Amino acid sequence: MAFFEGNNMTGGYGKGPDIINSCSVNVDRGEIVSILGPNGAGKSTAMKAMLGLLNLKSGSVIINGKDISSLSPQDRVKEGISFVPQTKNVFAGMTVEENLEMGAFLINEDYKKVIDEIYDLFPILLEKKSQLVGELSGGQRQQVALGRALMIKPSVLMLDEPTAGVSPIVMDELFDHIVKVKRTNVAILMVEQNAKQALSISDRGYVLVTGENRYSGTGEELLNDQRVRSSFLGG
Predict the structure, then answer these.
(1) What residues contact 161, with CB distance under 8 A and at least 6 apart?
(2) How confident is the model at residue 106 (pLDDT cuts 50, 70, 90)?
(3) Whole domain around residue 102: which residue ranges?
(4) To pair with 220 at 20 to 30 A between CA atoms, which of 31, 63, 101, 196?
(5) How confident is the model over 118-153, as pLDDT tens digits?
(6) In total, how many domains does the chain have?
(7) Which long-range contacts does 173-181 make (Cβ < 8 Å, 24+ apart)?
């Protein structure tokens, strides 16, 4: 049994059609798992289902052996799940440190100590701590979003397209930071369009097509699978 599991999930938004069908995804602590696939495959929907942002018609979501399928997104966050959306994931009119403080709403301990740990993980944020986030580069803003998500000391970190809209150099830097977060024993579930790069840092991956699991395996297996390469990796 994995630490965080979405099992045989079927559902969609409101009364619309099902977007995911019997979709299963899981991730262990200290592991990076990528969800890949073409546009409209249901990648983000699968992750949002695990966060509780849509109602499942069938299937279950389990964290550390506990069924949380009926919990609200807020209560799932209290179980240790942190989510970084693709857009609107920082407060541009606030400083870096104020953004991190906003992420401390569930912390009982001294959050200044946790902020220091975030600065150790992302040194550029310490350098820019008094700067407005809206003045930062795209890659730096993403580090703020990651840092804020880590303020609750989550056991699971969910990332929706963390490298969207950044340059290849910044993308590599962000992936390096994600690997550093993994080493703190966090379970990382990531939806990513840059499939080759994502698989290169992933322990495992899932390829979804029309809301269903099509391929799964280690990052290396999927990178070397000719069917996956020809269909999704451009050769």
Answers:
(1) 44, 86, 191, 192, 193
(2) low
(3) 88-151
(4) 63
(5) 999 999 999 999 999 999 988 899 999 999 999 999
(6) 1
(7) 173/139, 174/139, 174/142, 174/143, 175/200, 175/201, 177/121, 177/122, 177/143, 177/146, 178/32, 178/146, 179/32, 180/121, 181/121, 181/146, 181/150, 181/157
Assess if residue 137 is contained within a domain: yes
Residue 166 has pLDDT above 90, yes or no: no
The tokens describing 134, both together, are: 């809206």
> Cα 189–151–176 angle (5° rounding)?
50
In the 8-state DSSP scheme, what is residue 190? E
Helix axes 168-182, 111-121, angle to 10 degrees: 130
Domain assignment present for residue 139? The answer is yes
**Coil, strand or helix at 177:** helix
Contact 121, 177 (CB under 8 A): yes
Nearest-angstrom CA–CA distance, 73 and 204: 25
pLDDT exceeds cutoff 60 at 188:
yes
* The pLDDT value given to residue 232: 79
Q: Is the pLDDT of residue 234 over 70?
A: no
Q: Which amino acid belongs to residue 40?
A: G
Identify the pLDDT of residue 108: 65
pLDDT at 27 over 80: yes
